[in-house]
Amino acid sequence: MADVDSEPIEQAGAGVPDNFQRLWTPHRMAYIKGENKPTGSGADDGCPFCEIPKLSDEDGLIVARGSAVFAVLNLYPYNSGHLMVCPYRHVSDYADLDGPETAELAEFTKRATQALRKASGAQGFNVGMNLGGVAGAGIAAHLHQHVVPRWGGDTNFMPVVGHTRVLPQLLRDTRDLLAGAWPAAS
Ligand SMILES: [Zn+2]
């Protein structure tokens, strides 16, 4: 049973949820605003994908770390369990990935689908990259592969106000589930 009077939890990268979240308990919703955009295109301009790996897995919502790439939950998810696979290196163009980055990005994409199937029973996936702002990339300067789990009947989820979305699980709980389901290297 959720505690409706508990204080909002600060989530790294997402800011502190405001009190509206209490309207939505018992699923203490992650409350997401568009307030963590980089100030420029450089790695030192507040790029979240350069900052996240410096955090603990729990604070950064990192599901798995490889040698060239990592998998992290999206703070602006299209669906519960929406993952991204990112190179550690601040690179915008897919063609600029080196061999090991290309291979591990593909391998982590595969494992992300396996983890999502195991943890959440995902029935399908949308997988891909938006390269460049004109293609819809939110953080165009640091490429990232989206892995969005899909279930029958999940469309038209509730965008409530602006970037706010109602999610059926806390992001931290989702991270724990997916990290536990992440397949070992084969
Ligand atoms: Zn970056």
TrEMBL record:
InterPro entries: AP-4-A_phosphorylase, FHIT, HIT-like, HIT-like_sf. Coiled coil: none annotated. A motif (Histidine triad motif) lies at residues 142-146. It holds the Pfam family HIT. GO terms for molecular function: catalytic activity; nucleotide binding. The active site is at 144 (tele-amp-histidine intermediate). The keyword Nucleotide-binding applies. Residues 48-157 form the HIT domain. It comes from the Bacteria. Substrate binds at residues 74, 146. The keyword Ribosomal protein does not apply. Keywords: Nucleotide-binding. This is HIT domain-containing protein. It comes from Microbispora cellulosiformans. The lineage of its organism: Bacteria, Bacillati, Actinomycetota, Actinomycetes, Streptosporangiales.
